[in-house]
Each structure stands twice: as C-alpha cells, then as structure tokens.
C-alpha cells in the first residue's frame, strides 16, 4: 500500500436500516464480522491460510447454473514448473506435476506482485492473463476499453429487503474511484471488451464443468469472487435505470483460475500479502466447494480467455 492510512483496517460501520454507507478504505476485511452487519446474513466462513487452505469442507459437485505494486516474474520453485505462455494445448492437457502435486490441468501464469491501485483487481487479473499469453498492457489501456460510468460515487444502504449498493452500470463499465472507494468495481461483460480489444478469444463460463473444460484446454479464467474466498454478505447492486447485479458488501475481489484437480482449483491472485492476510500467496489452492460458493456471490461472473491466434 502507498500509505499507512491504507494499511489500517477501519472500524466496521454501523449499518442501520435506511443508513447510507460510503467506505473509503480497503474492502479486504476478514469475514462478515468486519462488515458491521449481522453474521446471520453471511455465507459460511471459508478460511484461507496462505498457499493452501486448511480444514475446509470437502468439495461438492457443480453447484451453479449453466494495493499498489509492481510486476514480478513468473514463480519458479522447481524445474517442474513450465514457463508462462509456453503451454499450447488445443483440446486437453496432460496432467501437470508442480512441486510434487499433480493437477489435471495447470497453466503457469505470470505473477503480478501487487495491484496497480487499491481497487484495480479486475484489471490486474486481465493484465496477468494477457501477459501470460505474450501481450503487454497498461492500466490506462485497459481502462480505455472498459470506460467509466460514474453518475455518482457508489454507496450502500441497508434497506428492509437487504443491503443495496447504488452506482453506475458495472455490467457496461467501471464504476467508482479506483483509488479509494471500497465499492468500486466492474463485471466480466465490461472487462471482456479489453480482452477482445487485444484480439483474445473470450467466452463466458458459469459452471464447474465449464471451468474444467476451459482450464483443461489451456485457457485461463478471469472471475469475480470474494477476498480469500471468505464469508460474504449477499448484496444487490442497483443502477439508476433499475438494472441489478448480484454482488457482496465489501469483500468483492477478482482472481484468475489457472488449474485444477478433483479436489481444488489453483488460483493466481495479484493482491498478495496485506494487513488482512500476511500469509496470502500469489498462488494458492481453493477447494471446489469454496470456489463455487464464493463465485456464486457474483452470479457466476467468469470469462475463459484463450491465446490470440
């Protein structure tokens, strides 16, 4: 983070019915206890301890329908790791062994060590995926394709029917100030314009079987989930024209899925260690049950990205 103020976790706000909330610090706060709302409204907590998750539930089958930093090189802990972008499977990958662990599919992916700014995770993930496939991008270039829709800075209210975040159309553009507004975000339908602008084939994905097929074909997955795949409070995003999107209160995040086996999904995360989780790695495993549950918080917002032809 660029300053000490950004490193402090704020006291959770009091959320009374009809109250207006506008947070200005990092959304990456562990679980629902830091959200200032009843934990009864949150999904079950799924703790993450660094590169591997400890003591999480056994994965289920498919449960779904249909801070400022600098780039780093790809991680290399042993000779078993392929270099980023060198894998060119067409239909199905052979099993890949990484540091003694064999995955059904795995694509070594560029490591971006830290986000461009506090709330740029969607763009950081796009950058990692593009660079893995040999295309260099900047934040300004990606923003140029996605654009902004800021009729006002997004804010949240507790309503009788639950939490609502009011803001521009995140399905069409980025909404919010990416340097301070904890609700700032966009969705896959907007970020795909950046991928397509650089000639990347893009397809939507919304099921476990689709994820497995895509990763097995050497594609990389861009997806919206929660920070550290932790508990979340389901929240509705409402635009001025009445369009709604499923989201979470303040631990919204974006990561890349880069591999899997029967038990886990392998995640590449640009956020890395922060005051909310000093053990967070740039790569870690998430059990399928946690992956599907937290991905569902965004309405299964995901894209599969292929290498440009």
From TrEMBL:
InterPro entries: TAT_signal. Residues 64-76 have a biased composition (Gly residues). Residues 1-22, 46-96 are annotated as: Disordered. This is Uncharacterized protein.
């Amino acid at each position: 983070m660029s300053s000490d103020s950004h490193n402090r976790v704020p006291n959770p706000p009091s959320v009374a019915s009809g109250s207006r909330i506008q947070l200005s610090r990092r959304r990456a706060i562990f679980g629902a206890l830091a959200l200032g709302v009843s934990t009864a409204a949150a999904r079950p907590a799924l703790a993450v301890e660094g590169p591997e998750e400890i003591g999480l539930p056994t994965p289920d089958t498919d449960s779904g329908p249909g801070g400022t930093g600098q780039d780093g090189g790809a991680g290399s802990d042993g000779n078993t790791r392929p270099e980023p972008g060198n894998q060119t499977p067409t239909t199905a990958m052979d099993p890949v062994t990484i540091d003694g662990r064999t995955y059904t599919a795995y694509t070594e992916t560029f490591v971006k060590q830290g986000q461009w700014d506090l709330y740029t995770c969607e763009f950081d993930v796009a950058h990692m995926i593009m660079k893995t496939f040999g295309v260099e991008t900047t934040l300004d270039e990606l923003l140029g394709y996605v654009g902004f829709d800021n009729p006002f800075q997004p804010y949240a209210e507790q309503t009788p029917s639950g939490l609502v975040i009011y803001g521009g159309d995140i399905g069409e553009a980025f909404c919010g100030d990416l340097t301070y507004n904890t609700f700032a975000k966009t969705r896959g339908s907007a970020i795909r314009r950046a991928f397509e602008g650089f000639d990347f084939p893009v397809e939507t994905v919304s099921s476990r079987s689709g994820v497995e097929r895509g990763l097995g074909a050497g594609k990389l997955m861009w997806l919206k989930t929660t920070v550290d795949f932790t508990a979340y409070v389901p929240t509705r995003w409402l635009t001025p024209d009445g369009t709604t999107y499923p989201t979470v209160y303040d631990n919204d995040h974006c990561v890349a899925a880069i591999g899997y086996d029967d038990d886990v999904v392998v995640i590449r995360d640009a956020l890395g260690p922060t005051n909310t989780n000093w053990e967070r790695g740039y790569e870690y495993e998430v059990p399928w049950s946690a992956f599907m549950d937290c991905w569902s918080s965004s309405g299964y917002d995901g894209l599969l990205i292929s290498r440009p032809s």
